[in-house]
Amino acid sequence: GESVGLHLPTLSVQEGDNSIINCAYSNSASDYFIWYKQESGKGPQFIIDIRSNMDKRQGQRVTVLLNKTVKHLSLQIAATQPGDSAVYFCAEKRPGTYKYIFGTGTRLKVLA
Amino acid sequence: ETGVTQTPRHLVMGMTNKKSLKCEQHLGHNAMYWYKQSAKKPLELMFVYNFKEQTENNSVPSRFSPECPNSSHLFLHLHTLQPEDSALYLCASSQDWRAASTDTQYFGPGTRLTVL
Fold this sequence. Notes:
Chain A is 0% helix and 54% strand. Chain A is mainly β.
C-alpha cells in the first residue's frame, strides 16, 4: 500500500548541533511534500514545503531535501535549539487530490 | 499563529451527551477539513468541504456529523460517542485543492476529546 514513513521514531540531539529527520514515501506520483512540526498540546505547524520539480529548498534554519530516485525526503535543522523539541512529520500529496498521506512522526529531543 | 482557531480546546463528555466542536479560519480559504489524531497513528482524514460542499466522508460513523455553513466555519457535532473516539480532533483549511497541486493545509490547535 501507499505510505509515508519515518525511519527514526525518536531523535536526540545536542543543543547547537544540526538535526536530520528522514522520511520515505512510496508513491512516485506524489508531487508535493510538506514538513510539519507538532509541539505537545498543539496542532501541526507548517514548516516548509517542496515540489517534486525541486530537490532542495531552504528556509530559516531549515532545509528540505528531496531525492526522487529513492523516494526520500529529509528535514535538516541547523543549530538545533530547545524550542525545536517536537514531533515532526512529513506529508505527501498527489496531483488532483486534497488527500495528504501523513507519516506517524519522529520525536526530536534537544539536549541541553 | 496559523489563523485557524478551534473551540473548545478540551472536552470531556459522557457517551450519552451531545456536543459540538467549532472551527473558524481567518485565512480566506475555501476548503476545510476534520482530522482525527490518535496516539501513535498518522492523521486520519474524516471530512472535507470545498466551497461549503462536502467532498469527502471517509467512512466516518454517523455519530460524527459535520456542518459547514460557510467557507470560514466548520462544526463537528458529536452524539453517543464511544470511549475509543477519544482523540485530538484537528481542523485544517486550505485555499482550494482543485486549483493547485501545492494546496497547503494549515491546522488549528485541536480539541482534545475524552469520552467517558
